[in-house]
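I had to read the description of the data format several times before I understood it. For illustration, here is how one protein appears when written out as sequence plus structure tokens:
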Amino acid sequence: MPLLIGFNYFLMKYTLAIDQSTSATKVLLFDENEILKADVAVEHKQYYPQPGWVEHDPEEIVRNLDAALRQLLFVSKINTHDVASIAITNQRETVVVWNAETGKPVYNAVVWQCQRGTGICNRLKEKGYGEMVREKTGLLLDPYFSASGVEWILDNIPGTRKMAEEGKLRLGTIDSWLIWNLTGGDYPVHATDYTNASRTMLFNIHSLDWDDELLEIFSIPRSMLPEVRVCDTVFGETSINGLLPNKVPIAGVLGDSHGALFGQMCFEPGMGKVTYGTGSSVMVNTGFVPKNPPMGLVTSIGYAACGDICYAYEGNIHCTGDTIKWLVDNLELITSSNESEIFADLVQNNGGVYFVPAFAGLGAPWWNNDARALICGMSRGSTKKHVVRAALEAIAYQVKDLVDVMTEKAGVSLKELRVDGGAVRNEFLMQFQADMLNAPVNINPIKEASAYGAVLMNALALGRRKSLESLSSLFTESSLILPEMSPLTRDKLYDGWKKAVSRAIL
């Protein structure tokens, strides 16, 4: 596809990065050297129509994007003529179905946390499709991924099945939804990238195409699906509904966890990253050939750039930052997440207390939707400080669960773990993480690794950068945390964690 770049492009300076996450629409301004200059976030509402169901309003997300863009341009005080391009990174498995003629969603977005597709997935497992899904997609047959949410909409929202069969509906992850709305007009672009496609449970990571057999078992017409493109290409043009004086290219698109892998420049096999967010994504680069994932984990396309497809093992933890938020909002043990580090440091150890935050079941490597949260090991001497410390330790234990399985299966040792997200400011957690992994934890000064990864893709797509080697020179570490814990202590603590998990999944 030809680059849609006007002759003034190289006189311009700024890239707008859209980071559409589970909780908010964030817009970030990067200069021509990929340096973050300003950012604005607008939160959107979470809908919980039934226990275990989670939804977003897709139209609210579009409205919030417009509001965030306007706020960013106002606070940054840049000339809109100096906006050169737009990059996108997004919450991944969350899926939208919309009317191709009106552009209106037929139902709310079904969020990755939503469990409404459990019955659909269980039915397919009973029919013996689990291994086929795993072989084709690298994923587990689970409602976490997009396909069952789409089938649920077509089966339960009146008229949608007929419209889908008539070719009148489109589906997409949030990147596709945003691209459709940004390009607009008579011929909106319906496209996604390889990373987001690989998380739908409809994409064959070997043939690199939507899979007809998968579409058949989920009863989804192929006409609904977006075109799949590499990450480092141009997806279309937009003036953001006239907010910009000229149309600029949308270039550089990938899912948020993949954006962080790329932004952390984990370009070599054995390099891994953790994005600490509401949940956490742990991803380890496994090279250019897809490998069958170890039980409980998945294989995804890590990124598609510079003519290569890089694969990665990934595990997703349902509750990490959300666990600390629960301590603040529900138990009111602390008044802010920042206090968690203070409380953890006030006790010498966890006092035997373990916290398994299975509020939405357990994700990888357990994948047990029936597991329930618990706090165990308390004695008469236990205090809220021990509980807070146990909650922080649980984040590190869950990361270790995944990294150990990934590196063993891939046959590589963990060179270092590169980390991003709000939790990296918690020094207690970062040290405990290094201790549990017995490996260096590298904290990158880039606060917004997912958006940064999308901007680096944008730079490749538009020719500001020419290769992965040219990107690697940009990496600078903020601090390197080295492990300090003795093997005996590490093994004892981790053994206690595994026993606590076994209680949660009974």
The first helix runs from residue 58 to 76. The chain has two domains: 9-257, 265-443+476-506.
